[in-house]
Structures are given as structure tokens and as C-alpha cells.
Amino acid sequence: MALDELTKNCFELPPFLLLDKAAHHVRAITTRGLYRRVYQAIPEEARVSLDALFTVQPGQQLSPWELLKQEPASPTLTHMRLLIDHLFTVTEQRKLLPAHIFAGSRKGR
After folding, report:
1. What is the pLDDT of residue 104?
2. How would you class 50 by CB atoms within 10 Å of its CB: exposed for 0-12, middle for 13-18, buried for 19 or more?
3. How many helices (DSSP H) and strands (DSSP E) are in the chain?
4. Is 57 left (phi over 0), alpha (psi -120 to 50) or beta?
5. Mean of the pLDDT values across residues 9-32?
6. Cα-based distances in Å from 51 to 2, 38, 95, 96
7. Distance between CA 3 and CA 56 in Å, rounded?
8. What separation in angstroms does the CA of 12 have from each of 5, 6, 9?
9. pLDDT at res. 34
């Protein structure tokens, strides 16, 4: 939209490739800054715990991250117990993170 307006007003624009590279550069700087702020806000204990989510343990086929994303199974008593255990584990992991990270969530806990 801004480019259209500049073109209408006879502003000479640099080649598109240059604009595209500049936009990618600005996006990369912004993203790195955002990641740095999030990384610094998370305590070391939580960082270690989060990193462990992506490590497949010997003898296992899935990482804890993959297990975390699994949908609940059919509503049998055994599956309900497994779901309760799963939810308890997720709740315990969440306690490692600073409370202010969840300030925008529904319950904030």
C-alpha cells in the first residue's frame, strides 16, 4: 500500500530485490531481539526443562514434545488416567516459567 502511494506521487523507488532484502534484514533483527528478550526472561532451570522437551531419550521413539502434542485417546478409564497424568505433568512444567509470561492467558496461572 505504501509503495503504491509513493509510486502515485512519482517517487523513484529502488529495485524490488533491494527492498525485499531490506525487509528481510529488518525482520531478522526484530525476531532476534524478540527471541533474546524471551530467552532472558526465562530462568535457567526452565530453559533446561524446555530444552529437554526436544530430546529423544534412549529407548524412546518420541520426544517429550511429541508426547505433549498428542491428542487424548478414547474416553476409557485407562486413557482418562493417562490424560490426568499428562495434564499434571504439563501443569508442573508450566510452574517452572515466570508467572508474568501467562499474564495474557485466560486464567493467568
Report:
1. 64
2. middle
3. 5, 0
4. beta
5. 91
6. 41, 14, 16, 13
7. 48
8. 12, 8, 9
9. 94
Q: Please choose, from the candidates 77, 54, 75, 79, the residue with its C-alpha nearest in 3D space to the C-alpha of residue 65.
A: 54
Residue 72 DSSP label: P
Query: What type of residue sits at position 109?
Result: R
Per-residue cell: 80? 482418562
| Cα angle value 84/89/90 (rounded, 5°) | 100
CA-based torsion, 30, 33, 37, 38: positive or negative? positive
Could you give the CA distance from residue 86 to residue 70 in angstroms, rounded to a whole number?
10
What is the Cα–Cα distance from 5 to 12, expressed in whole angstroms?
12
Which pTM was predicted? 0.52
DSSP labels, 11-61 = PPPPPHHHHHHHHHHHHHHHHHHHHHHHHHHS-HHHHHHHHHTT-PPTT-S
Q: For residue 25, give the amino acid letter.
A: H
**What is the distance between the alpha carbons of residues 12 and 22, in angstroms, rounded to a whole number?**
17
pLDDT at position 102? 67
